[in-house]
Amino acid sequence: METGPANVEKVVIIGSGPAGWSAAIYAARANLQPVVYEGTVKPEMIPLGQLAFTTEVENYPGFPFGNVRAFIESAVDEDRHYNLPPAPKGHVKNGAPHYAVQGVELMELMKQQALNFGTRVISDDIVDVDFSGHPFRLHTGEGGIAVAQSVIVATGARANYVGLPSEDAYKNRGVSACAVCDGALPRFRNKPLVVVGGGDSAVEEATYLTNFASKVYLVHRRDELRASKIMQKRALENPKIEMTWNTVVAECLGNEKEGLTAVRLASTVGAGERTLETAGMFAAIGHTPNTAFLHGKLATNEKGYLKLTKPFRTNTSVEGVFAAGDVADDYYRQAITSAGSGCMAALDAERWLAEHYG
Ligand code: NAP
Questions:
Q1: What are the residue numbers of the active site?
Q2: Torsion over CA of 263, 266, 272 and 277, rounded to 10 degrees?
Q3: Where are the domains of the chain?
């Protein structure tokens, strides 16, 4: 295999969520001088990934409640402090803020760790790829070209919304695609809420929201759930969840001051329409992996996620291209599993480079 011109990168990482940064930390420490394209465009190349939309992350190991902010401010370069969200109010211990790490904070810490080991970060998108020969050529949103011996795709996935124009109008003002991120917000407390979907996510989110809501309406377009039996049982037996079968949301209703106040529901079996008062609508109708920029040049599974071609490895259908995180995972979809697979991809790339480029 030819080594190519001098400015050929050993590894280019596309994406800046937990998978991307973990891959960068490992690749940098292996002296591969990684370059991360962190993305600029929402929703396809979400800078800092889906965690950028998350508040407190209570299940990332190593981050128990504490005075997280003091540590973060000591660790993250000062010129990026403006990026950090305000510390959540209401948790105070020994006079100091006391809370779980927030999504953006966790990502800024990972980014810092990658930077500390020499990772170069480019605020641009990859909009097309040429994997037809080695080294690979990647086209950037600003018209540049990156040449790389190996590539790690870590562009994640994004939550699907129903797709109504009225839904857009109330995003972050009652409409959400993440109950776990937003469910505890004051606006949803002791109010009726709507969850749309019939899979495990919908059932899980509806069950979670019963911690805060006065009642949760699970709106599903069919008359049976897709969710696993055990999750179904949990929802069907929960007195706070009301199943709303054969129904879709036709319109989100509200006003400038209050945000979402109701949804207009339509029957899928010709039983008419009705209006349901609600303070929140949570879409839980699946995710879409961020693969459009690949233009079909990597094999995907039937759901559109990148296909990993070797068991317990991160290899894709193209030799020298690896995938990590949610872009290749429609099952676990956790920050910790993404970070783990980012590490795996960097180790896979390192070994592949040693074998093919010496
Ligand atoms: P999913 O299984 O694909 O379910 C999506 C649901 O949304 C389906 O019920 C579907 O209806 C509905 N839907 C899709 N598009 C819609 C639209 N435009 N309007 C209205 N409804 C629509 O997705 P998921 O629930 O996010 O689960 C994804 C994967 O993660 C699954 O493998 C799941 O098992 C896993 N997961 C596991 C857990 C857990 O074990 N704790 C939790 C969450 C997710 P139809 O049924 O009619 O197609």
A1: 178, 181-182
A2: -20
A3: 8-158+287-357, 161-283
Residue 352 CB coordination number (10 Å): 18
Cα 259 to averaged position of ligand 1 atoms, centre (Å): 26
pLDDT of residue 89: 72
The residue whose CA is least distant from atom 29 of ligand 1 is 331
Q: How far is CA 314 from the centre of its chain?
A: 19
Sign of the dihedral through C-alpha 333, 338, 339, 341 = positive
pLDDT (tens digit, 9 = 90+) per residue, 71-97? Answer: 999 999 999 999 898 887 767 888 888
Nearest CA to ligand 1 atom 26: 286
Domain 161-283 fold:
FAD/NAD(P)-binding domain (3.50.50)
pTM of the full structure: 0.83
pLDDT, tens digit, 9 for 90 and up, residues 153-184: 999 999 899 999 999 999 889 999 988 778 88
**Ligand 1 shell residues, CB under 6 Å:** 162, 196-202, 204, 221-222, 226, 248, 285-286, 330-331
Specify the CATH number for 8-158+287-357; select among 3.40.50.300, 3.50.50.60, 3.40.1190.20, 3.40.50.720: 3.50.50.60
Give the residue, by CA position, lying nearest to ligand 1 atom 3. 286
106 C-alpha to ligand 1 centroid (Å): 27
Do residues 194 and 249 make contact, with C-beta atoms less than 8 angstroms apart?
yes
Tell how far the Cα of 225 is from the centroid of ligand 1, in angstroms.
Answer: 9
CB contact at 8 A, 325 and 19: yes
